[in-house]
Amino acid sequence: MSSMLVVGSVALDTLHMPSGHFPRVLGGSATFASLAASLYCPVKLVGVVGNDFPDHGIALLKSKSIDLTGLEVVDGKTFHWEGKYADDLSSRDSIATELNCFADFHPKIPAAHCATPFVMLGNIHPSLQVEVLDQIERPKLVIADTMNYWITGAPDELKKMLKRIDLLVINEEEARQLAGITNIRKAARELRAMGPRLVVIKRGEYGAMLFDGEDIFSAPAYPLEEVLDPTGAGDSFAGGLLGYIAQQGTVDDSTLRRAVIHGSVVASFLVEGISVDRLAKVTQADVGMRYAAFAKLAHFATTAEL
Amino acid sequence: MSSMLVVGSVALDTLHMPSGHFPRVLGGSATFASLAASLYCPVKLVGVVGNDFPDHGIALLKSKSIDLTGLEVVDGKTFHWEGKYADDLSSRDSIATELNCFADFHPKIPAAHCATPFVMLGNIHPSLQVEVLDQIERPKLVIADTMNYWITGAPDELKKMLKRIDLLVINEEEARQLAGITNIRKAARELRAMGPRLVVIKRGEYGAMLFDGEDIFSAPAYPLEEVLDPTGAGDSFAGGLLGYIAQQGTVDDSTLRRAVIHGSVVASFLVEGISVDRLAKVTQADVGMRYAAFAKLAHFATTAEL
Q1: 61-90 in chain A: CB under 8 A from chain B
Q2: What dihedral angle (degrees, nearest 10) is formed by the CA atoms of A280, A282, A283, A284?
Q3: Within an 8 Å CB–CB cutoff, is residue A268 touching chain B?
Q4: How many other C-beta atoms lie within 10 A of the C-beta of residue A88?
Q5: Phi, psi of B152 (to 5 degrees)
Q6: Which of A41, A56, A85, A226 could make an S-S bridge to A246, C-beta 3.0–4.6 Å?
Q7: CB–CB of B246/B117 below 8 Å?
Q8: Under an 8 A CB cutoff, do A299 and B218 touch?
Q9: Quick check: A218 and B209 CB within 8 A?
Q10: Distance CA A291, CA A279 (A)
């Protein structure tokens, strides 16, 4: 089994949900991705928090054997995001984004982590994502997440980053925006032409698609009856996806397809709780059972049987 | 192999598409559904046209061995719909809906058709759908399509119809509207409580879902690079779905899942042409190849392989 490096934000989120108010709960792309990946492989986290970061947060990450050598603790406050979700959770408004100690963050990869074979660049400024790659040996696979904020705010840096990664994870609408193309198949081809060999498009409750050359894999989403909090679903998806690849140690088509399902499995658990509450309790047995539910959900006879 | 009865509209459509203007081309729910089903089983069509209906329309239906005993030809004009699509085909506006001879239509099922084992009630007024069932012996399976127009315009008649069918085919947004529930799994349960044992929810470019008790099947959509005309996609889907079931003669879970894929296969061809142009040219070999493409699109190892 290989290990995996995650670089991204570690945050405290204040969530206004239909189910209640949740002040200063654990959040951040690296937090969600690390916890998701820890179900599959050893994880090393690189990020920054202030000295207000709660002990229970550190304890939770350590309880999942996540290596925190690369987690800086600095004087000051942790990145804090406050948001309010719509009643049906289909949209959210940012109330406050306080970068705090994250404003001056530059990832420093500990020497012992520089040869980690699988690397996830969480959803942070693309220049910071590139700084990570400048510090490490060429990994077996680098995946990166991004969002509309960087597509419009740092397009040149984003394009530089795309040339240096293997797999881009991106939302459907943002894929269209970045490619400038509505048709999803053509948009994926355009994104691949920008650098990454593989593109995974997240479609929320409609699942995810993997584009590998002209091969396409369409994964369903698990139809949950109750979703409590979608915050971090994309980060958990990417973390579970790469964590599974790191566990298997290979990047062939069959492994990639299973990895997309594992990412979907982990994300489906994450959204069942507030913040990391549900994800933190998921067991390997839970993963196996929900994977089987995905298989049942998607199965049909592969011959037309006319 | 069993045969199938289709009752619905036969129309002439004037289409304003990004790719051009197409006056008075073939349309109508029964036209699309019959042509789709004819790939799989013998089809009997019940509907009405005026004496302006073009000979090439009749010739096309006959060339697919569709039984037109139940197609009335009356003095007057054929149902005519005119619509304009958005540039990305994601929405359309009705410019004109001229019911013409369809205004007084009451389906008359020829005596020879009254024992047809598989029946599709195309998207027409729910009272007309019920009139069909009043004239025939209890079939093995009845499926019906409906739309927002009837949900808001004839809710009581719609509820009576739902109590008498086995399978409801409905768009995702209309499923939510009819059930009054946003969560798709709960909405499907509510729809099943209204009558139909089976519910199939159409999600356009996101595929389709089959709800059978607590069993759920999620089918992908085929990611096409070029869509010319989505008119009739839902009708073709339902026609292909029931046509396949009639061909197989059974309604078990495995057949139902394959039927949803076959419906998706046929609809994916339909939208590649204007009106019925592409659908009319589809061969069984084409169906087999695209079914295989769906299988490849959706395939992943069914064990988690942790």
Answers
A1: 88
A2: -110
A3: no
A4: 10
A5: -90, -30
A6: A41
A7: yes
A8: no
A9: no
A10: 15
Question: Would an 8 Å CB–CB cutoff place B211 in contact with chain A?
Answer: no
Q: Do A287 and B304 touch (CB under 8 A)?
A: yes
What is residue A304's predicted lDDT score, i.e. its pLDDT?
A: 84
Distance from CA of A296 to the nearest CA of B (A): 7
Q: CA B285, B289, B295 angle in degrees (round to 5)?
A: 145
Instruction: Inspect the interface and report whether the beta carbons of A203 and B205 lie closer than 8 Å.
Output: no
Q: Can you tell me the distance from the alpha carbon of B47 to that of B139, in angstroms, rounded to the nearest whole number? A: 19
Residue of chain A with shortest Cα separation from B263:
A304
Model pTM score: 0.96
Q: How far apart are CA B134 and CA A234, in angstroms?
A: 51
pLDDT averaged per 10 residues in sequence order, chain B, 306 residues: 96 97 98 98 98 98 98 97 94 94 96 97 96 97 95 96 98 96 97 98 97 96 96 98 97 97 98 98 97 97 86
What pLDDT is attached to residue A305? 83
Backbone angles phi, psi at A196, to 5 degrees: -65, 135
% helix, strand, coil for chain A, step of 5:
40, 25, 35
B:287-306 residues touching chain A, CB 8 A cutoff: 287-288, 291-292, 295-306
Answer whether B260 touches A (CB < 8 Å).
yes
Q: B258–A304: do the CB atoms touch at under 8 Å?
A: yes
Yes or no, beta carbons of A298 and B223 under 8 Å apart:
no
CB-CB: which of B260, B298, B306 is closest to A284? B306
φ/ψ (deg, to 5) at A217:
-120, 130
Spatial distance between the Cα atoms of A107 and A47, rounded to a whole number of angstroms: 7
Joined together, the tokens standing for residue B51 give: 């004496």
Report CA torsion sign: A161, A164, A165, A170.
Answer: positive
Tokens of A292: 């089987």
Nearest-CA residue of chain A relative to B243?
Answer: A306
Alpha carbon distance A22, A25 (integer Å):
6
Taking CA–CA distances from A290, the nearest residue in chain B reads: B304
Chain A CB contacts of B207 under 8 Å are 206, 218, 220
Q: How much is the pLDDT for B306?
A: 82
User: What residues of chain A score a pLDDT lower than 50?
Assistant: none
Cα distances (angstroms) measured from residue B17 to each of B24, B268, B273, B276: 13, 18, 11, 15
Reduce the DSSP state of residue B82 to 3 states and report it: strand
Q: Is B91 on the interface with A (CB under 8 A)?
A: no
